[in-house]
Amino acid sequence: MPANEFEDSVLPDIQGRRDTRNIAIDHVGVKGVRYPVIIASTQGAISTIGDFSMSVGLKSEVKGTHMSRFIEMLESQSSPLTQESFANLARATADRLGAPFCEVELKFPFFQSKTAPISGAQSLLDYDVVWRAVVSNKGDAEFTLKAIVPATSLCPCSKEISNYGAHNQRSLISIEATLREMVSLEELVDIAQNAASCEVYGLLKRPDEKFVTERAYDNPKFVEDMVRDVAVALNADSRISKYVVEVENFESIHNHSAYARIVGRPGVNVREAA
After folding, report:
1. Which one of 65, 119, 157, 215 is least enclosed by Cβ atoms within 10 Å?
2. Which pTM does this prediction carry?
3. Which among 169, 266, 159 has a CA at the least distance from the CA of 223?
4. Can you give the pLDDT at residue 5?
5. What percent of the chain has pLDDT over 90?
6. CB under 8 Å to 137, separation ≥6 — which residues?
């Protein structure tokens, strides 16, 4: 007798029993599932380690969900994950668990090959990435792509008031975009890097260091400039339905960070700050 038939005929299904408290659960599932994945990108298939969170909505009359089925759904994936197949994973998970709602989130490090601007030295730079797919009752899937991109910022005020030099800092630019159509991760990375005083590299030789230092000095940006420049680029992209942009500058002359955030929708006027 197959194992699943044995379980159905002999072992009680406690999760499937009726619950009498009449309270639905918004999210129930598994978190922190580390799993090897292959991501399809413009660079080809990229192997990485994913951190999955998978949850479904639970109807008020159902006692519990079947946790093992989430892992079964991960085990069923063999091809490189695309944005479309990831959304289909969320749909299939909702169907497998008979749930009215499903959310699947995947966090992973993504490495991009970079070329130093003068020497041409090759190196890898890592970005933190989040994919999220949410499926509703109708089977519609909302896909969100988030990239966290390191960069350099140089303070315009410091440059203006100083007789020589200007303070600069490491920055993190976070772009979370809900998509109507596919947008590659590399495109979001480019938008973030173009908004900074200068992009960062894994490996620089002395001529490269001179270049990036002077590049940042010639392109000073407040945290407000950076977050607005990203928003301008996103507002021009019809493939994006909504976004959240956050920029944090880890100040070199203060023991705190400078921070800015914009929530927007392309085609809709950006609201005035309250």
Report:
1. 157
2. 0.88
3. 169
4. 56
5. 74
6. 100, 101
CA distance 86 to 39: 10
Question: Which tokens sit at 83?
Answer: 């944005």
End-to-end CA distance of the chain: 66
Structure-block tokens of residue 148: 């966290």
Instruction: Compute the distance between CA of residue 152 and CA of residue 215 in angstroms, rounded to an integer.
Output: 10
Three-class DSSP category at 38 = strand
260/47 Cα distance (integer angstroms): 33
> What number of helices (H) and strands (E) belong to the chain?
7, 9
Q: What is the pLDDT at residue 1?
A: 47
Element (H, E) at 178: strand 168-179
CA atoms within 13 A on the CB side of 235: 14
Structure-token pair, residue 173: 């630019």
Burial of 192 (0-12, 13-18, 19+ CB in 10 A): buried
Return the amino acid letter for 167.
Answer: H
Sign of the four-CA dihedral 147, 126, 77, 31 = negative
pLDDT tens column, 39-49? 998 888 889 99
Nearest to 261 by CA among 173, 151, 147, 170: 173
In a 13 Å sphere around the CA of 79, the CA atoms on its Cβ side amount to 7
The first and second tokens of residue 251, run together, are 């100040």
Helix (H) or strand (E) holding 8: helix 3-10
**Rounded Cα gap, residues 51 and 108, in angstroms:** 6
